Records
---
Amino acid sequence: MIRAAILGASGYVGGELMRLIAGHPAIEVGVAFGASNAGQKVTAVHPHLAIAYPGAALAAWDPGLLNGCDLILAALPHGETQRLADQLLAPGIPFVDLGADFRLNSAAEFERWYGEPHSRPDLLETFTYGLPEFFRDEISHSKRVAAPGCYPTAASLALRPLVEAGGIDRQGIIVDAASGVSGAGRAASAATHFCAVDGNYRAYGLINHRHTAEMEMVSGASVLFTPHLMAASRGILATCYARATGPCDPLAILREAYAGEKFVHVGETPPETKWATGSNAAFLTARHDERTGTVLALAAIDNLGKGAAGQMIQCANLMLGLDEGAGLSNMGVYP
Amino acid sequence: MIRAAILGASGYVGGELMRLIAGHPAIEVGVAFGASNAGQKVTAVHPHLAIAYPGAALAAWDPGLLNGCDLILAALPHGETQRLADQLLAPGIPFVDLGADFRLNSAAEFERWYGEPHSRPDLLETFTYGLPEFFRDEISHSKRVAAPGCYPTAASLALRPLVEAGGIDRQGIIVDAASGVSGAGRAASAATHFCAVDGNYRAYGLINHRHTAEMEMVSGASVLFTPHLMAASRGILATCYARATGPCDPLAILREAYAGEKFVHVGETPPETKWATGSNAAFLTARHDERTGTVLALAAIDNLGKGAAGQMIQCANLMLGLDEGAGLSNMGVYP
Amino acid sequence: MIRAAILGASGYVGGELMRLIAGHPAIEVGVAFGASNAGQKVTAVHPHLAIAYPGAALAAWDPGLLNGCDLILAALPHGETQRLADQLLAPGIPFVDLGADFRLNSAAEFERWYGEPHSRPDLLETFTYGLPEFFRDEISHSKRVAAPGCYPTAASLALRPLVEAGGIDRQGIIVDAASGVSGAGRAASAATHFCAVDGNYRAYGLINHRHTAEMEMVSGASVLFTPHLMAASRGILATCYARATGPCDPLAILREAYAGEKFVHVGETPPETKWATGSNAAFLTARHDERTGTVLALAAIDNLGKGAAGQMIQCANLMLGLDEGAGLSNMGVYP
Amino acid sequence: MIRAAILGASGYVGGELMRLIAGHPAIEVGVAFGASNAGQKVTAVHPHLAIAYPGAALAAWDPGLLNGCDLILAALPHGETQRLADQLLAPGIPFVDLGADFRLNSAAEFERWYGEPHSRPDLLETFTYGLPEFFRDEISHSKRVAAPGCYPTAASLALRPLVEAGGIDRQGIIVDAASGVSGAGRAASAATHFCAVDGNYRAYGLINHRHTAEMEMVSGASVLFTPHLMAASRGILATCYARATGPCDPLAILREAYAGEKFVHVGETPPETKWATGSNAAFLTARHDERTGTVLALAAIDNLGKGAAGQMIQCANLMLGLDEGAGLSNMGVYP
């Protein structure tokens, strides 16, 4: 068995990684680092995993514990991977990072959107962007992968094939998206209080959400991105608008782009976030509105699945030469 | 007391009308028609009103019962008001209709979006569009008012002042909106099943939702409208995108437009649907994104409040010479 | 107008008090103390009240500001009223306290359930228990009222008439209740995180929840109480089980007990928490199961309404000689 | 591969069976009967399964299609299995029935609780009750299994070991339980409308819910059962109350009873329904309240998992000599 080291194991993504790995035929948890809960049992932090991890405990960060591990999966707050980079990369173990630190290929773009200088610009080019449907070969040959953010995964799946096919204008794209609350992490705050979210819908991060940079990089287009918080634990729906460059069948373009993909479904029906819950699946549709000259493209994923832990495992499978879908489901838990 | 006849009293809007009227200082329920529940007690259909309407029952439609009424409030399925028009209008009683039948000023537009001819085009011009913040005087002097749809109320409040101020392009406007499930009415269906909505988010009516026509009429601009269904009983958030015509301060435009309005609040913070729950309030904000040349304007309302029953009462107050806010709250029930 | 001083104005109960008072015909807010948010505008803390309180700000605690006030409404954390008692009681202003400090009539019981000595046992007898349906006269003649907890309000409304009528055994009563999350207050914690509550149901405080003492005092019976947290912002349902003493018609007993009450409805249909949302209403039903010799009695309220702010206003109305229902609704906002 | 015939494939349990089977190492879907949706593609009815069942369609009932199948899994409305019994049993294929038809061992009890005579009392004794933790051997040697109802699964897991250990009185047991809406099935109705459930909590079936009979049969005790509907798609929590017969450590009894079980976890923390979502796991705790002489025992499951489809697969695995946990997860999808 491949032994995985998990960083950020006490968060939602960490818990999802542990759930997926417990069902993975070739990977097991070697060590689970959970800074804020170090020393506690996994059961205390993730009671839904109590049967699968009866005795396991979370460890404090100690790079020595990476010895004997064959894979590193990091789900840390933004900035942490830069700080720990030397320790994480030293052993040369295949490494999948979910943080934003090494996703962008430009330190200037990072600084522009994150409001702080990048401390390790020298490493940016050594990471591959971990969206397998677009960069499968690169990921397979890489030892360092930066897994995409949840919103950019959804938006890029919807937009990139349309941009590449020349069907939509690269300027003036709008991504209007809704996310479940787990995307905001496990930290308790006024914004994640049940009563603040239940039955509510609101936009946030108007104009300047950091994921904009990533969407623009991957889709190759200029994007105005508006995230919304919805009353759900999981799920992202990206509703994307672009000007059509001319007659265009966006649904056909998406169908062709994702033919043979085992985690992407393109259909006529507008996708629903709940179809993807707990899975690594993405559901897409598209329309051309001739009246206004607009192309709509919609993508639904589970932000913790294809938008985080699922995609990390998908990348790891590729990096390790395993079946790309090992340990992953393409079916949501519904209803 | 002014005696109101309510049509469609067994639906959600009907129940909200009865709740508002029970707390109204000058209006009382004269007769409540509830076709599908005629003969049943109000308590059986609206148990939350059991104390306020202990003995009342719902009546079958009978135009003779309009005698002695001073106000008609109709919340009927689309098409019904056309069919009943002669009976409803004959007595010359002030009439507020929530249906879509008499909102548009063009029979051609009605046919285009509703897919059927208008049976009473002769009456279209006799109705005033019931959005008090824009047409207060006309409503005050009218005996026939067509209250706006829920989505158009939100979108128009956000967009019309910006269009009128010349701050945004009249072409290429996008309205991306989310609605609570009560907007779909009380009828049980696969789409309104709890399990289909709980924790879910999805778009519907892509490209051709009927409310588009109304938004275009009121805002004076070309609109692509995408409604979404969110996991909430009440609430609408309209997130609107338009190209700026030049330097522009949309927040200042909205603040000026709604200064002195007792049901519209313009603020810096992105509005939340839940702030408006149970009230007639609307909460707005706006931004100018210079990077992409886009203006964002957002409006949150309760679809059953400012988007339906509340606005009907607001119109009726104006028509009857009462205080415009009588019986209405500008505060949501929160959390 | 009567000027009310509110303590704890930045919490959920505080916000509800301000909402109710804004619609009250005879009371207005004199000063709103909000310790943790002192200096902030009401709008910032309670954006749903932005139109009603456009310029108001929250004050830091200063007993001098009670001058000129005619009513004190305190919604403070447990223990605070004991600490502030001398300052609060000195001016002799009618005072309604929602805290647990002065509800119980025995310092020993307080210490037993709250795990700490009572610092002002001398004051216990000077407070009247604020459940108007049982103690209307006492409240009317009192200047110090301790408003009941939310769970005890629901359980006592269901149980006390049955105990008093001798229909149920005073031993072995079980109260199994569910509460919305606002009952846990506005503080952000792991337990109130949206993702921890959404779609979830769990018991807490097994065997030793503090509200047990209050239930036993008011119902005059021995109670085992199990609270549950449900996925709702508001609402409490108490499902109570007791052994029947013999043939018994509990529904008739409740109907008689609450005949003429304007905020209590007794009906055949099992009550739903949502019927009461935003109101001061309570909905009850009961059954006698002859097969097992058990009486069931159920009560649904809004924990912030009849379970907190609504009942405080109801008590204040009585104390001030106003109409008991002034500023209160007996209809929930539904759906 | 073992080929399974699924009856009731268009319902929630049917969809869950198809999801589990798609991930099962030794079972595949042979034919999926979906009466109300016969002829439709699986994708249309279960869009979350679109990738796993791209071309499959639902069949109309035709006993001939059982040829070539090695397993029958029926999730039909109550009464249907009686009606189809001869056709279903004729081929002698291992059969797991989720309906209530063959769970009780007494036709009289069936008639008493279901209000109609049992049409096939001759078959009652030929079925084994499918709760593996209690009847593992019988199930392994049976070709006909009646899988338990969702509520009885939860209640029996909590109660039976305590009854058998003599720790609790067999009289006067109360089961107060809450269920997610999927337990009411996929049919749209006023009671399952999103707006009727969202933010709501209510009891139903007071005194006479049919599952009572099953609970009494399995636990060997007299039970008063009160089900509640909660605002969740999935999940059941049973909170059970019984009189202690004397000093008693119910937690120790449960721990011993379920030692070695791979789907049952007994812990100190009160279990939460969400821990089990999408899995076959059950989470239990218990307490002895010496003050009132009461034992509490709580069990949380996913009503579609351990309460339906998961348990059906667990039984099938036993009947077919497969690993008992094949295709099943003991970890919920959380949050």
---
Amino acid sequence: SFSVKGTSADYVYAPFRIYKGRAALSLSPVLPTFTKLESGGLVVGRSGVVMLKFTPAIGERKYDWEKRQVFALSATEVGSLISLGPNDSCEFFHDPSMQSSNAGQVRKSLSIKSHADGSGYMVSLTVVNNLLKTKENFIVPVTAAEFAVMKTACSFALPHIMGWDRLMSNMPTGVGVGRQQSKVVPQLLDEWDR
Amino acid sequence: SFSVKGTSADYVYAPFRIYKGRAALSLSPVLPTFTKLESGGLVVGRSGVVMLKFTPAIGERKYDWEKRQVFALSATEVGSLISLGPNDSCEFFHDPSMQSSNAGQVRKSLSIKSHADGSGYMVSLTVVNNLLKTKENFIVPVTAAEFAVMKTACSFALPHIMGWDRLMSNMPTGVGVGRQQSKVVPQLLDEWDR
Amino acid sequence: SFSVKGTSADYVYAPFRIYKGRAALSLSPVLPTFTKLESGGLVVGRSGVVMLKFTPAIGERKYDWEKRQVFALSATEVGSLISLGPNDSCEFFHDPSMQSSNAGQVRKSLSIKSHADGSGYMVSLTVVNNLLKTKENFIVPVTAAEFAVMKTACSFALPHIMGWDRLMSNMPTGVGVGRQQSKVVPQLLDEWDR
Amino acid sequence: SFSVKGTSADYVYAPFRIYKGRAALSLSPVLPTFTKLESGGLVVGRSGVVMLKFTPAIGERKYDWEKRQVFALSATEVGSLISLGPNDSCEFFHDPSMQSSNAGQVRKSLSIKSHADGSGYMVSLTVVNNLLKTKENFIVPVTAAEFAVMKTACSFALPHIMGWDRLMSNMPTGVGVGRQQSKVVPQLLDEWDR
């Protein structure tokens, strides 16, 4: 496994941080969780995400961490982000209370708009909370270089938040065609064997 | 090795799923199998694939898993998919009974056609079975963002389904030029040594 | 961990070297350091970089390693480098004594300028030292092929110098949603659970 | 380490093979070798390559493995290959006896020429051996999809043949800034600390 020898660290904090005048933006991947099946296999439980955190500035290089708001990008939203061209824009809408009695009361929208000259993007989050009668807005200008880091890091993270690195890593350690075949779902063999 | 410490999971299920109105599409990589040579080396037995599974809808958000059909993309077909531009299309034909007495009786064709406006692709599978006198058709519209996930995940998976991650991982753990050289096929040395 | 079994090597030297007539340029990644938190987690201490080293030539294929100068590319500067188009240029400025009493006394500037015909880049480092009254200049022409190696290697290295490979690798080895949830910061759950 | 648990395999054979009418082409990465320094570090000894092997056809789907010729792509040549556009071409020349008394007697040239319609490439190897008075020529047409596999697999392999995966993997397992700093070459600290 990838675990660090000699340490018992449970979590690693390595967000990519962009500190700007009005707000700070940080990105970090959150891995999926897995549930063990009776058959012995693992199935993805909660999907992984790339978590964006926005924090408002309250002075020069000072940020109010209590007022942080988060936006969790799904695999498909990460797909949007990494395929964004220098003149493209995109917008995502989340309802954190979806499928609860509070559905529709809080609306989050994340917008990524390219600058007209291709020099970067304006990333903004708006959170409208009808329960608290609040509306918060965070704006972080992101340079083309910073966005290149976001794209490369998100492309690296994407297979991991999908759990595909586990598909790779949990390969049977035994060797030989025979052992492998015995585990193949029979209905797949006709196609696989072509 | 990559195996998960503390678990004995044999398989990890982490397909990328696209649920649409008429059918669902899922992708997952299937690793190659290896056979041990008498010399102690490993050689790829069955090649890895990226498995596509199509399932027809039978109501709102309900799919008939019994009627699932699969299509296994080879490394070269994955190469086609990941190099597809926003206005490109491609089509693959498989005969799952090739080289058997039923050759030609079942024909599968997978088509990936870009929308005219570059907003995504129409992915469809047709399975014609002359033995059962059936013809099935699955159509899944895929957005540009979903296709970006497919491309990134397939690019990640490609070296793994080819077995190249094993080439990397099985590097001799010994250190020093001498030990390495003794294992090099002599005829390669003139080129390698240049 | 990735460490090599059977060896106790602490460091691996594998710079990518470009030897040219007037100077040599080498690149190698330097990983971030981590600090252990009381909570048991790890946090990035010093960020990782891609270290560029310039060495002046003092004869045919002879370089004066004593006169070497270094320039450490941050994650965002690596983002600039890997997103550089064939006709693009960029320039970075560093003050190695920033935030000390010698601030402003030594200025380093790295310039990457594309050739007009797209055949490669001119990479140059200038180091002006007001304390020593010196000005050094290193110029290394880099072909398109060499720059492609630099871009691919830096793209590979970027998630590692950011520490994102650790985020991936230190995944909890336990299985099951329950255990995972207990570690999630409560305020994140509403977004994560959407 | 990446080694396969429960096996003692020394080598993994997983070449990417392209069989065509007149010749077959296979690609496989060859990892660098490392030499242990007295200081305990590892330094790259022989650089890694991507090995191309050409085999002439002697009938339908029959190849004469005795007449195989090889061409080892260096990191920079791999950089050329992976940055080749759909209408680009490149050519490399090797002298396997360079720096020996036979220098210049055997000349190998590898040519990758794009088809005019962008549908793929013609890959050919010519080996002129003045000692044996022979000239061999191998021609393999490569489709765009096959070339996409070559590019993706070579991009994956590049950091590994450079030894950069080892730079990543051999990270100190200890935690904390103090321990790390004690191993940093002092002259680097001023830049690194900026």
---
Amino acid sequence: MEAGGVSKGPGKPGFGANQGVSVLDFVLRIVAFVCTLGSAIAMGTTNETLPFVTQFIRFRARFNDLPTFTFFVVANSVASAYLFFSLPLSIFHIIKSGSQNSRIVLVILDTLVQALVIAGASASAAIVYLAHKGNTRTNWFSICQQFNSFCERTSGSLIGSFGAAVILMLLVLLSGIALARR
Amino acid sequence: MEAGGVSKGPGKPGFGANQGVSVLDFVLRIVAFVCTLGSAIAMGTTNETLPFVTQFIRFRARFNDLPTFTFFVVANSVASAYLFFSLPLSIFHIIKSGSQNSRIVLVILDTLVQALVIAGASASAAIVYLAHKGNTRTNWFSICQQFNSFCERTSGSLIGSFGAAVILMLLVLLSGIALARR
């Protein structure tokens, strides 16, 4: 068994366990970065002006008319910045797969950022649902009849954020597995 | 090293590391169970009938007038049921602190339930904010002027849920640490 291990080289037994997980971690981190950045940009540039004006009002809907959407943009921007700056650490884990302390730091930060992304995405989903369906009991009427493109854009930007949330949950679990296998 | 381990007894080296973490895990799990159950009950029993009627309408606000609050109750009920049934496994980890597979199962389920609780709490927070402040741009008016006790009750029930979310995040991290120390 040992002879077989030597013939494969000293780094190989570690590769199967932790280095593979580290490579997957790196790839998922890039995907989550793209998702959160895309969501933040898609929501942050949402701006619809209706093609008619009255004497007093120009009908216009921007994402920051709703504070929840502002929170969504901030949460996804923070998450994408964090994911970008965590990439070097992820590369470090591919090279040095036995490191433990840096993994623990990363799993703590991943957990916090994942919570932030989930919070932003689900709060916005609640508002998007209200914008689409309205609520007759509270007299909150649907705004999607008028602001059609605004609604489509805000709904679409949730997809990337929920995708990123799932990926970040996977990253936390992967780090747990990597720590267990160390 | 092995002689030192024997002199301390076979169970002792594990106690300082993992058994302490397991006891903390058990205590936090009970607290989170109480928080989610309390939140689910507080929100689920929210029901305010105003003391005046018109010819056509009896003014009444229940939690399930808003689908987001129904989701909140379901999410917190599921979480409290899960936390209750995870207690025996947590006790098992205190007794047998070296077990790994059951810890991995628990950390995966904890991550999912934590995401569910955060999603429910933040979606409801977005709606509660809207109920308090309203939004002039979309003509969604505050309902807290009329339904004062409804608003207070729904706002209050968020506290337990956010507390449980933080505790569940800690549980995920604790499991990660326990797996790393094994």
---
Amino acid sequence: MKSIFFFITILFATVVHAQQNFTQDSIIIKRMVDDVMKSKAAYENLRVLCKKIGPRLSGSLGAEKAITAGLNMLKAAGADTVYLQPCMVPHWVRGAKEVGYVIVGGQKMNLQLTSLGNSEGTKGKLINAPIVEVTNIDELATKNIKGAIVFINIAMNPTYIRTFKAYGESGVGRRSGPSIAAKYGAIAVMVRSLASNEDGHPHTGTTVYNDSFSKIPALAISTNDAERLHKSLLTGKPVIGYLKNNCTMLGMVKSYNVIGELRGSTYPEQIITVGGHLDSWDLAEGAQDDGTGIVQSIEVIRVLKATGMQPKRTVRAVLFMNEENGGGGAKAYLQQAKLLKEQHVFALESDAGGFTPRGFNLDMPSTKKATIQQWAPFFYNYGVYDFKETGSGSDIGPLKEIGTALAGLGTDSQRYFDLHHAETDVFESVSKRELDLGAANMAALIWLVSEYGL
Amino acid sequence: MKSIFFFITILFATVVHAQQNFTQDSIIIKRMVDDVMKSKAAYENLRVLCKKIGPRLSGSLGAEKAITAGLNMLKAAGADTVYLQPCMVPHWVRGAKEVGYVIVGGQKMNLQLTSLGNSEGTKGKLINAPIVEVTNIDELATKNIKGAIVFINIAMNPTYIRTFKAYGESGVGRRSGPSIAAKYGAIAVMVRSLASNEDGHPHTGTTVYNDSFSKIPALAISTNDAERLHKSLLTGKPVIGYLKNNCTMLGMVKSYNVIGELRGSTYPEQIITVGGHLDSWDLAEGAQDDGTGIVQSIEVIRVLKATGMQPKRTVRAVLFMNEENGGGGAKAYLQQAKLLKEQHVFALESDAGGFTPRGFNLDMPSTKKATIQQWAPFFYNYGVYDFKETGSGSDIGPLKEIGTALAGLGTDSQRYFDLHHAETDVFESVSKRELDLGAANMAALIWLVSEYGL
């Protein structure tokens, strides 16, 4: 009987203690969230990245400027150590604006188009060939595309509520289509932009050449043009495409990840990474992709410092270089971690736009996942409730090799692919409140991990 | 023993049956959601409301055109009965563009400002008086404001994650401030726009005069101007305000609610209302407020018809007139319901912008609430998970008097008050996917109620 009484007392004490902890931690988190929502820091940093610097493609002058700006922002945020980490990145240049049109029954139809990232160009020559349309990747093998310009017309599925799923599925055309088309004798490829809306803006993005086949020019056309071209082809009239692009791959050059740390007070050797990518496509300001992830990661450092929440574990904000067309920064980060035998306990990436946060995607063993999932109630008040999805981010992905628990900020994805990789990805597309709410939730999770580990 | 066995069998059969129903209903809901997400109907209807018609203030030509357009849209959606319901609405006109500035130490500072809805004007006269600032409503009584132009500077609280809460709290200045200021002798009022961002656009909205006091001119200034004016006043220099506005209340005129029905197959006498409001402020296109609610309500009719889901109960889409400055449509709808002794079992309003849906706010007895809450799993796949908030909408609110269970679409509210009642509330601010996702979830809830009742 006594022992039962003792057990109940202990249980009661434990519950009370847990409740007290929860209340205390909720207060700390609310303090951080309030600070972020009232602050202009993240939004003004984003304004600098977008309006003062603009496009930041790896190897470009914009990327160089962004590295300097990132260093300064991390210092201003209060990081106690700020440094650059060298990495190698491809230097691809677009060259003069692309030219593209089709002739349908004697009528010229201009196309809004853009070279895909890492694509080869026509070296200034206007090439032409009949257009052959495919609406799935398998048709590249079954249709006669020899000597043709292939029009890969795979729309994003509008019925997928998570737009990233549609992007992943339809993206095969952009990523692998050009090399498969080359295998079957096509001379160039035009892909329908990976976009969730219909408008006149082409969306770029990386294509990945297979070295076994010739590297043929690969461009994206706007979704409006894809619809028009599709209709033209339905008429049965011959459609001849004309293309000229001037992009070229200049080879590998040196660049940098930008890193700022708050050293852990108790377990400084345990590293928590929070990051996004500093590079962006050259067509726009890279606001949602991924300026928002950059300034949110810096904001995590700022708010921990501003609210006096010295982390027990080391929190490191990493502004990765070269996510868009090579992952050079991500590779260098892993390499250095291995070289220095660093202990990377957790990494969080924000690379799904600065939209209202909805959850955290988790990629880690189930016991660690359970630890984070039990913290879910801390986040409900701030609109974040979904801890069931799997995933993280391209920049931190390589850390899986050394056993790091990975996570990604899950956002409301409805608008992302309207502007992703297109010239519409500008500062004005970002809501200050949505951006800040993402940063606030990230700060809360980073602080919980820094306090309790996984 | 036998009876236990029997009980288990029954229980098992019940569970299996419930599971089968859930699966079947999920399939029906998915079919409706897919149809909405693929359709362009709601988005194109919104384009017409915003771009072909534009502002639709009660009593205006725009409102008249919108009534005709609404009728046509409901017919095109497949409603089996479409009709107009008369109501009385105030006819308030803004007149020529307002003029406003302040003189601070001899320097002129122009103000971006707009008359509040239903406000009296200065009748074309440029009035002037010293500016006195108050930062909460109680200061109207404690500060000396006699003969002054009062600047009511109550910012929306950025730390409230639900922006409607901040709007409600800070909105007291706009709604009640002018009459309280008049009580203490002020000659006019300038309120800080109820906006969640800082920019140069003033936000209008209704002010409610108390007939016991004189009706003094009431205007809103942009948040940027509010910040500048606040700083000017901090210098201690005298600040003289100058105002001219030309608005006037012309009295009550006849207008209409627009109604389209799908007659219930089994319980036609049981009416389910789904609606938004057709009128909008005169400054912009009324896209998010509340063009989106209108086209979503029409979309509910369209998708039920398009997918062959004849409702068991009567589903009625109501495009309410005069939500913004009087509620004439809402009053007429209740009055008619009482006159005809209609049985209104459920009403759902969408008037929180066409942003990503997050939940349904519920205002009904707990047993009915529990019925809807048990349907929550149908909605998780479509991003809607929150069934705990209370509320509905201004247009359906009066139906509470006759015992109707009320609900409101809860949306992601972070961006709403950036554009609410300002000239930035235009078609381009609406995401097709967010709009459609709201309509799809509304259709699912309306269908469930039509099928099972509450």
